[in-house]
Design a protein that fits this description.
single chain; alpha/beta; Quinone Oxidoreductase, Chain A, domain 1; Rossmann fold; seven-stranded mixed beta sheet; six-stranded parallel beta sheet; Threonine dehydrogenase; NAD(P)-bd_dom_sf; zinc; GroES-like_sf; metal ion binding
Length: about 300
Amino acid sequence: MRALWTTPGAAALVEGPDPVPGPGEVLVRTLHSGISRGTEALVFRGGVPATQAAEMRAPFQEGEFPGPVKYGYLNVGRTAAGEVVFCLYPHQDVYAVPPSALVPVPDDVPAARAVLAGTVETAVNALWDAGPRVGDRIAVVGAGMVGCCVAALLSDIPGVRVQVVDPRDRSAVLAPWGVSCVDDPAEDCDLVFHTSGTSAGLQRSLDLLGVEGSVIELSWYGDAPVSVQLGGAFHPRRLTVRSSQVGMVAGARRARWGYADRMALALRLLADPRFDAVITDAVPFSALAERLPGILGEPSGLCVRVDY
């Protein structure tokens, strides 16, 4: 067994004994995993605040922040019975978990695309939090993995105007959904989804809102300070900033939807081949430790898939 472990600024593949499934556990051999750039970059630089260590802990994490730590949560593998499954497991080539930790990947979803399930799940939860309506004028500020998936889901709502705001050109990624990436977005938005992880992006989001508009904040800043101007139009326009975090099912759905239901929905949505555009690179697992610093430091990429 090999697994990726990190300390601030460094990564290594660590070998260990192959896991032996306990009573009721399932052995899974990894096919692919995905690098969640924003969160894993935060962990890699040691930026998880001590006060948030418990909330930031991944389901099958080993070690404590800032490290050494085995971290990650976008894993697609195959069971001994031959079933392809998604699991919130770190970058490791073989592992044993309870069956309740596994979500079957639908037959019409390629395993290589299924690594996006956790990201699409985050986007689904954000839309549940926001409650976009037919015809809404919406902006997405920040076109990373989460921002692109949010824009993709929004594009299928009838009559909506979706604009993506990002200094990087995401036209090739967003074109299949008919979404535009603009430098000078129209204002008077009903909703703005913010995913850039920067103070400037949050300020831009507020500036784009119309009266009674809302920013849905998906960014995770870690220990970085955030500064925005709450004078000017913030109070007269009665603007709102609302956090959306995938660790809880959105309140509007919590009474009827569980975590497994939400993840199963995300996987069904990934039957759409347009999501392949969100995976912009692939790396063999054997080279992951060596290439991780460059991957996390590259601002232009989206999801990097790890092939086992």
